[in-house]
Design a protein that fits this description.
The chain contains 17 helices and 19 strands. The chain is globular and about 65 Å long. It has helices at 5-8, 13-19, 28-32, 57-69, 87-90, 103-109, 114-134, 153-162, 178-184, 205-218, 290-296, 345-358, 406-418, 424-427, 429-432, 443-459, 467-475; strands at residues 24-25, 44-53, 75-78, 94-96, 146-150, 173-176, 192-196, 200-202, 222-224, 231-233, 243-246, 250-259, 275-285, 303-306, 312-316, 322-331, 367-378, 384-388, 393-397. Helix content is 33%, strand content 22%. The strands form three sheets. The chain has a nine-stranded mixed sheet with strand order 1-17-13-16-15-14-5-7-6. Strands 2, 3, 9, 10, 11, 12, 18 and 19 form an eight-stranded mixed sheet that branches. Helix 2 packs across helix 12. The chain is α/β, with parallel strands linked by helices.
Length: 481
């Protein structure tokens, strides 16, 4: 087995320890917008045309688009804790056009639709950008593109293959050799890159969630926090009466319901094996000085990600901090979501070490924040959709870490389905198909841990996939973050 660049060029334990000495265990994005707007808790019974469960991006986009389609509709959104506290407030802020978690996954699963899915994904990102401008959404939106980075020799060929079919004259995708990529961002680990100039943007995750909630309420959406839904009941209710959603202190009877709970246990039994929560970890540096910025370049402020199975993602914030996350993707037995899983010192030390291998010129820089959160991982690596209870309820879930933009598309799919519309979106095979479920425990844990081990071995063996990974690929099963 070959060593990786992070093993061949390790950072010193002293540098890592000093960088984490004063780090807060807290989500930078959420701290950066404090104090946040608060919303009341639901008490008592109410009726609605549309009830939405979940106050992250999926639920908020659904609320806004529902009011745009029908301004007179009574739309109620129920959030178990606070708006954007989970994945929507703590992700990396990569707003990607891909609806399929990348070209390779999309092409292998839906070859006949792949080109159109890419077009729809780009259209979706364009719509988000225009909506941000039109509605005055202050979320630090930057459409700077992204760099797919090769940090091992075998990854260079992967990048060359990925641009082989780019039409002559299309300058939205550019292959960069070693000199070219280091001219963009100066790291001794970079061997090549592909610069995707149109298909990626960056946002401040918590600002986006907070601003979507503001816009929704200004449109007339009623938001209730600290109102977890405990059950969905259609017994004794006609189709025109819809579904009763029970909370601890209240009840909503809604003609239509959209479920946007994502990583949390589904209110529908049919979906409880469809996803697993995978914990992802991130660090945020202190703001870089002018000298440090000059040392690394990065003037075009692209989002960055390397090509490994256990990949790293990183980006600049508006105030010139660097978010550095990924690598470890940790599953805990029993599909549990618990706050104690976020405190994993060995992972934060590993990330810090990899950061200084990537940017040795930044030695002495400290990390201000460290945090983690669970990702709703599906076996097909991207969202799936459906309806239940005779079309009264719609759901979207399983975004697998690439949902910042895809949630906007998902909101339209759910609303199309609830309205009984026959649209291009609802006719897509990608939308009509359900992925294979993960098995129950203990098989889920055994399989996921074996897959993680195999992915690590592939990264140490020039990307070559072993029999387990090849078998999973062949049957359409997988594990990713």
């Amino acid at each position: 087995m070959r060593s990786t660049v992070f093993e061949r060029q390790p950072s010193s334990a002293r540098v890592v320890s000093e960088s984490l000495a004063t780090t807060r265990h807290s989500v930078f994005w959420l701290d950066d917008i404090a104090p946040q707007t608060t919303y009341p808790t639901l008490t008592g019974p109410i009726e609605a045309d549309l009830a939405i469960v979940g106050g992250g991006y999926t639920g908020l986009w659904t609320a806004i688009i529902a009011k745009q389609r029908n301004p007179d509709a009574r739309v109620v959104l129920l959030e178990a804790r606070t708006i954007g506290w989970a994945a929507s407030g703590r992700n990396g802020g990569f707003c990607e056009a891909s609806l399929t978690h990348g070209d390779e996954n999309g092409r292998s699963r839906w070859p006949d639709e792949f080109e159109r899915l890419n077009e729809l994904g780009l259209q979706n990102l364009d719509e988000i950008e225009s909506t941000v401008a039109e509605l005055g959404i202050d979320c630090d939106f930057e459409r700077n593109g992204s760099l797919d980075l090769a940090v091992e020799e075998h990854q260079v060929e992967w990048l060359r293959e990925s641009v082989a079919d780019v039409p002559v004259g299309d300058d939205s995708v550019e292959f960069l050799d070693t000199e070219g990529v280091r001219g963009q961002v100066n790291s001794p680990t970079y061997l090549a890159a592909v610069w995707n100039k149109r298909t990626s943007a960056l946002v401040h995750p918590a600002k986006l969630a907070s601003e979507l909630a503001r816009v929704a309420t200004e449109m007339g959406v009623e938001i209730f926090e600290h109102s977890p839904v405990t059950s969905l009941d259609t017994d004794g209710l006609s189709a025109s009466e819809g579904t009763a959603l029970q909370t601890a202190k209240g009840r909503v009877t809604a003609i239509k319901t959209a479920l946007a709970t994502n990583v949390f246990p589904s209110l529908l039994k049919r979906n409880r094996l469809q996803t697993v929560p995978v914990y992802d970890y991130a660090l945020m540096t202190e703001p870089l000085s002018d000298t440090q910025l000059a040392d690394i370049g990065w003037q075009n402020r692209q989002g960055l990600g390397d090509m490994a199975n256990q990949f790293h993602y990183y980006r600049m914030s508006r105030d010139n901090r660097i978010l550095f996350g990924g690598y470890d993707a940790v599953y805990h037995y029993g599909r549990k979501v618990r706050s104690e899983y976020e405190n994993r010192p060995e992972t934060y030390r590993t990330l810090a070490g990899h950061f200084f291998t990537t940017f040795p010129q930044l030695e002495g820089l400290s990390f201000s924040h460290q945090w983690a959160g669970p990702i709703d991982t599906s076996t097909r690596f991207c969202a799936f959709f459906g309806t239940a209870r005779g079309g009264r309820i719609a759901y979207a879930m399983g975004f697998t870490g690439l949902g910042v933009a895809a949630t906007h598309f998902a909101a339209k799919v759910m609303l199309d389905k609830l309205e009984g519309l026959d649209t291009e979106r609802t006719r897509l095979k990608m939308v009509r198909e359900r992925p294979l479920p993960f098995p129950p425990e203990p098989a889920a844990s055994i399989g996921i841990q074996a897959t993680r081990w195999s992915l690590d071995r592939a990264d140490h063996n020039q990307g070559r996939r072993n029999l387990l990974l090849k078998t999973l690929d062949a049957v359409g099963l997988g594990f990713d973050s």
